[in-house]
Design a protein that fits this description.
It contains eleven helices and eight strands. It has an eight-stranded parallel beta sheet with strand order 1-8-7-6-5-4-3-2. The structure holds D-xylitol-5-phosphate and zinc ion.
């Protein structure tokens, strides 16, 4: 499996001092920052948009290599993932991770401009994200079957292959929910088929649940409340990494 990547979710940080929270978290040994973008439509919660990402990006050095320290891992819990690709690229997003369900469920558009924002297939969207110079991730909600990702990951067209799969281990929308161990067969199936794939898990990860996720084959670990709620965030990050590295 690829190296362990620990990606604290800043959803659980103090939004009043978000820039400092970001630089502190990298200082505590985090690899990436997981940035949860919610639109109040795809999920029943609203967070923040590209202007906020621009500001917090300036508090953290850009990664010098692909997936290096300081990668902004933007988890796009939004209904129109194509519409925001360019804005987030400009804001400093490195990895644009959209939801498969949003890409296939784009609703009917009223104008040609709206049409081009809404009509997209996951493959076209991945290509578009790559054209903007970002890495592309595809996320699946708990009720979505993992096999929908195979067609994308098996593509011979390199530009249309995602760089990461995100298996949600809670229903997206809120931090601090309970980890769903019944999502682990999805992770196992992905790891078996794709030994080198970056497989991210998100939701309810902590020192209590990390072994289950690591044993299944996850290597990219998101943790919000477990890191930001800790007395010693650096220690939690270290323990999560040790569990993945075995
Ligand atoms: C939930 C978000 C998660 C969330 C995880 O919709 O995608 O990234 O912040 O929070 P914890 O780790 O507290 O479950
Ligand atoms: Zn997330």
């Amino acid at each position: 499996a690829p190296p362990a990547i620990i990606a604290p979710s800043i959803l659980s940080a103090d939004f009043g001092t978000l820039g400092k929270a970001c630089s502190d978290t990298i200082g505590h040994g985090a690899d990436w920052l997981h940035v949860d973008i919610m639109d109040g439509h795809f999920v029943p919660n609203i967070t923040f948009g590209a202007p906020v990402v621009t500001k917090i990006r300036s508090h953290v050095d850009r990664p010098k290599e692909t997936f290096g320290t300081g990668t902004f891992d933007c988890h796009m819990m939004i209904s129109e993932p194509k519409k925001w690709v360019k804005d987030f690229q400009k804001a400093g997003c490195d990895l644009y991770c959209f939801h498969y369900e949003a890409a296939v469920n784009s609703t009917a558009a009223e104008s040609p401009e709206e049409q081009s924002d809404k009509m997209t297939s996951p493959k076209e969207l991945i290509r578009f994200i790559h054209e903007q110079g970002m890495r592309a991730g595809v996320a699946i909600k708990p009720k979505t079957d993992v096999s929908v990702l195979y067609e994308l990951l098996d593509s011979d067209v390199k530009e249309e292959v995602p760089d990461m799969a995100l298996v949600m281990t809670v229903e997206p929308g809120f931090g601090g929910q309970k980890f769903m161990p019944d999502m682990m067969p999805k992770v196992q199936a992905l790891r078996k088929r794709y030994p080198d794939l970056n497989i991210e898990v998100d939701g309810g990860l902590s020192e209590k649940t990390i072994d289950t996720a690591a044993d299944a084959g996850a290597n990219v670990i998101v943790a919000g409340s477990a890191v930001f709620g800790a007395q010693d965030p650096g220690d939690v990050i270290k323990k999560l990494r040790q569990a993945v590295e075995g």
